[in-house]
Design goal:
Helix content of chain A is about 75%, strand content about 0%. Chain A is built from 21 helices and one strand. In chain B, strands 1, 2, 6, 7, 8, 10 and 11 form a seven-stranded mixed sheet that branches. Chain B has a four-stranded antiparallel sheet with strand order 5-4-9-12. In chain B, strands 13-14 form a two-stranded antiparallel sheet. Classes of the chains: A mainly alpha (about 375), B alpha+beta (about 375).
């Protein structure tokens, strides 16, 4: 015991490298000090600021590195704090807030953008997305309608049908999106269509179809981490843990991916689990220290599926439920409440699903257990 | 064309909803105050130091140890400008030593030790943390401040760049209050402990004579009964809670939870088919030992903060007692007043107890089957 403690202490202490050529860090694009020169220009020129902020936001999405959101915020701040803010800058600011799960702030920022530019399709789509995550479906559908007035018909159909699929018309929405031809769509648009189809298939209980959509989407959009995570969850449910490890290999630095890796490692009794657990615990601890909760859902799953702490998982799932109301949020709350022997804790989520007509085949396990 | 641009950017937003992000940018600031003397360290991610100071002199996208050493002067200057510690009597000028490397879960960090001597020994210290404030407004400094054997933590930077810390306020007090509340909360929410206790307390205002319940003639025997049951339960669960909290004994939580449910059944059925009519405190003690493991499970999920483990454990246990006593004080006077009624003896005793046993049976099945 003493020996282990002292080894841990040694590995945690600082060292002085002996080789000047030792590489300490690789710098992703846009993170070198000289990028500060472009940033200086961005404070003067909106035509530099907007693409730069967009670049940082897309880097945050692809690499999962939250620093990029801070960089985007730094670029946007001068353009959103002045008296007459630039609407396009406000929309990007809202995207940063939304990516940090600061949903109320994002909606307030979008209100400012739409007050200045009521026909900003971008703003309406972002609004629809935030409202959907918050479970405010009728408002989200209204935002999709507004979006459809200014945007491509095919894409606005995805926006609209995604909400339909959550509000009692799952089968019909799935059929509609299937019929929507991906011909002529841009790559991210196709990915969006297929990820919605995949998730709908999951909720319909058609795992084989879902797998088809996820694989299709990942074939040409390998960096869509959200789809990769959804596919990994499907594989985990089918206990195909080895495939999960292969699917997520090389993406261990991204917390939600590492979570799925850890769950798979646990099932496989893989000794590498110890390291994954340590990394995740550190990440959640740091997040909690900062008073932030970007990853409440992941934390609840970690506590439940890796740490076997159902009571703590339930507390995290309830805190998550207060902020986020996607089908996965319903699912984790149900699982945690059930595991903690307190199924009544999930009643608000059950009532939410019932009142909206939210169907999810994954929840039938619990429905069966309740009966 | 315009339509396409809008749509492309919009998709980016749609997918960005599902934030797939790992740790944000954090600096780790450790400050130890010993009288007027300060010893400490600041850890800054290599990538954060790069964007702030510029380490990658050959611009090949890789930061090497040689480049870090070459940038030491620039780094020290930057840190001096962006991190200040002071006491009311004046500034504590930081002297930075040679930079080292520390590996953390999300990559390599520059580990920068420093020392300082403040102009006086003070009860207040002010920390001004502005690292990366213009480069990355989401950067935060996670502070661990130790003084006079007490440790406090805080988040620095962003809107809270300058913060004052009261060194006379022991953090022990905060831990105590937090764990006291947790203990009370747990008793009020963990209804199974209360049901067990009440199953034993229902007959405390009665006496068993010739196969029948009768009201106790005066308060004294009832008070003695209540006192014995509550004390036995308290002593028993305190013992096992302490043993489990310090990892002396561990039981699987499914087993503990199931046995707790079983204990309620036993206690409740004893009111319907009385076997133990004298000295029910023995049941309270025997099963109280198991309830202690149940409390310990809650405590282990919260974790006991290092340095104040014992005080937190005491506070949690005290919270449990306070919560339990509050409920007993609210309910038992009523039971005493009602003790002679047919409702109490003929309805509440048999049927209330049966209902409790039934509920506990459901729990037992749920918990045992999992």
């Amino acid at each position: 015991m003493l020996a282990i403690a002292s080894i841990a202490a040694v590995s945690a202490s600082p060292r002085t490298p002996t080789d000047d050529n030792e590489v300490l860090a690789n710098l992703p694009p846009g993170t070198a000090h000289n990028s500060m020169q472009v940033r200086k220009q961005a404070t003067e020129r909106i035509d530099v600021a907007l693409p730069l902020a967009q670049f940082y936001i897309s880097q945050a999405r692809v690499t999962g590195d939250l620093r990029f959101l801070g960089y985007a915020e730094a670029v946007l701040t001068p353009w959103v704090t002045r008296g007459t803010a630039v609407p396009a800058a406000l929309v990007l600011e809202a995207t940063v807030q939304q990516s940090r799960h600061e949903f109320d702030s994002a909606l307030a920022t979008l209100d400012r953008a739409l007050a200045a530019a009521p026909n900003d399709a971008q703003a309406w789509l972002t609004r629809a997305t935030v409202l959907r995550v918050r479970g405010r479906y009728s408002e989200a559908a209204a935002a999709c309608t507004q979006f459809g007035r200014w945007a491509d018909a095919g894409v606005s159909l995805i926006c609209e049908q995604a909400i339909e699929g959550l509000t009692g018309h799952l089968e019909a929405a799935y059929a509609t999106l299937r019929q929507l031809s991906p011909q002529g769509m841009l790559v991210p648009e196709r990915a969006w269509r297929e990820s919605e189809l995949g998730e709908m298939a999951v909720r319909l209980g058609r795992d084989a179809d879902a797998e088809h959509w996820f694989r299709e989407a990942l074939a040409y959009s390998p960096d869509e981490l959200y789809i990769r995570g959804a596919y990994a969850d499907l594989l985990l449910r089918q206990r195909r843990c080895g495939e999960v490890l292969a699917l997520l290999k090389g993406r261990e630095s991204i917390e939600p991916m590492l979570l799925r890796i850890a769950i798979a490692q646990k099932q496989l009794r893989d000794p590498a689990l110890a390291r994954s657990r340590e990394l995740l615990q550190a990440a959640f601890t740091t997040e909690a220290q900062r008073g932030e909760a970007v990853h409440r859902r992941e934390q609840a799953r970690f506590l439940l599926e890796v740490e076997d702490l159902p009571q703590a998982a339930l507390a995290a799932a309830l805190a998550n439920w207060a902020v986020q109301r996607e089908p996965d949020d319903v699912l984790i709350l149900f699982s945690a409440a059930h595991a903690a022997g307190a199924p009544q804790s999930a009643y608000p989520a059950l009532e939410f699903a019932r009142s909206h007509g939210l169907l999810d085949a994954r929840l039938t396990v619990f429905a069966g257990a309740r009966a | 064309m315009r339509r396409f641009r809008v749509v492309l950017a919009g998709l980016l937003l749609a997918a960005a909803t599902h934030a797939q992000a790992h740790v944000a940018s954090n600096g780790f600031l450790r400050i130890q105050l010993d009288g007027p003397r300060i010893a400490g360290s600041l850890e800054l991610a290599v990538r954060d130091a790069e964007i702030a100071v510029g380490l990658d002199s050959n611009r090949d996208g890789k930061v090497t140890w040689g480049e870090v050493r070459a940038a030491q002067a620039a780094l020290t200057l930057y840190l001096r400008q962006h991190l200040q510690v002071s006491v009311p009597q004046g500034s504590c000028v930081l002297n930075f030593g040679a930079v080292q490397i520390n590996e953390r879960v999300d990559g390599n960090y520059l580990w920068q030790p420093f020392t300082a001597v403040c102009p006086a020994v003070a009860h207040w210290v002010t920390i001004d943390y502005r690292l990366l404030d213009s480069e990355d407004p989401s950067h935060r400094g996670l502070l661990t401040l130790s003084a006079q054997g007490m440790t406090q933590t805080a988040v620095l930077g962003g809107p809270r760049g300058v913060q004052n810390f009261d060194l006379s306020h022991p953090s022990v007090w905060y831990a105590f209050v937090e764990y006291l509340q947790a203990g009370i909360w747990h008793i009020w929410n963990g209804i199974d402990h209360l049901l067990f206790l009440f199953s034993l307390l229902l007959p405390a205002v009665l006496i068993r004579r010739e196969q029948r319940w009768r009201a106790v003639p005066q308060a004294a025997p009832a008070l003695i009964n209540i006192f014995q049951v509550v004390t036995a339960f308290t002593v028993a669960h305190s013992i096992t809670l302490s043993l489990a909290a310090f990892d002396v004994v561990r039981l699987p939580s499914r087993l503990t939870e199931s046995v707790i449910a079983a204990s309620i059944i036993v206690a409740a059925l004893n009111n319907v088919f009385p076997l133990v009519t004298e000295a029910r405190w023995r049941i309270a003690f025997a099963f109280g030992l198991l309830h202690g493991f149940g409390f310990a499970a809650v405590l282990s999920e919260m974790g006991l903060p290092r340095g104040v483990r014992l005080i937190s454990l005491l506070a949690f246990n005290l919270g449990v007692e306070v919560g339990q006593l509050a409920v007993v004080l609210a309910v038992m006077p009523l039971a005493y007043l009602l003790r002679s009624t047919r409702f109490y003896q003929g309805t509440l005793m048999p049927w209330g107890s049966t209902a409790i046993a039934g509920l506990a049976l459901v729990w037992l099945i749920q918990r045992a089957v999992g």
